[in-house]
Amino acid sequence: MPSPNLSPHFSPAADRNKQAILEALLKVLPEQGNALEIASGTGQHVAWFAAGLPQWTWQPTDAMPASLGSISAWVAEQGLANVRPALVLDVMAAEWLPGAAQFDLIYCANMLHISPWETCAALMQGSARHLAAGGVLVTYGPYLENGVPTSEGNLAFDQSLRSQDPAWGIRRREDVEQEAGRAGLQLRARHLMPANNLLLVWGRSPQNPRD
Question: Is the pLDDT confidence value at 2 over 90?
Fold first, then answer.
């Protein structure tokens, strides 16, 4: 059980989507590897994925120091030995982690639409620096797409986000692809997920292999 000073926060959305995302990851990933989670939030995802992918080692991070206690509490509650202590990581920072840490998976869910657009370029550039040979970046969340009708729910969600902060909003997948291309990454797979979300898999382009 977590120590008394650690309190696990609960996100209903993370609880609803965790199994669907895990099932997609099981199809995408090899049996074992080393994963970095960006914007871990409550910690519900990393705890669920670490239990479902026990041969993987997970490094949770979040830009908000206040989130680390909740992440640690979820990990402790599940008794997980394959999750490293949570770290503060701001994708806008010039250096994400000390040294040249490399990861087989970098996972980021529901960040791009609740942060300024500049974080997209930062996520792609940082991922390109820290992906191991053959590694992938997986992003999850709602997207707008050219030629694909946007659900009423996502339209309302987009308007709600922009009313809270004009710098927020659901991103167009094609714009995200453009930023990925500038970092030497390309879209390798698009998985349609429940509740009008997408799970996107990014890897190094042939022009920037390192694989």
Answer: no
The answer for residues whose C-beta is within 8 angstroms of residue 145's C-beta and 6 or more apart is: 172, 173, 174
Give the contacts of 48 (CB within 8 A, at least 6 positions apart).
18, 19, 22
Cβ neighbours of 81 (radius 10 Å): 9
pLDDT digits (tens, 9 = 90+) for 91-109: 999 999 987 799 999 999 9
What rounded mean pLDDT belongs to the chain? 94
End-to-end CA distance of the chain: 41
Query: pTM for the full model?
Result: 0.94
DSSP 62-128: ES-GGGHHHHHHHHHHHT-SSBPPPEE--TTSS-SSSS---EEEEEEES-GGGS-THHHHHHHHHHH
Tokens representing residue 51 in the block: 């239990």
108-160 tens-digit pLDDT: 999 999 999 999 999 999 999 999 999 999 999 999 999 999 999 999 999 99
Region label for 44, one of left (φ > 0), alpha (ψ between -120 and 50) or beta (otherwise): alpha
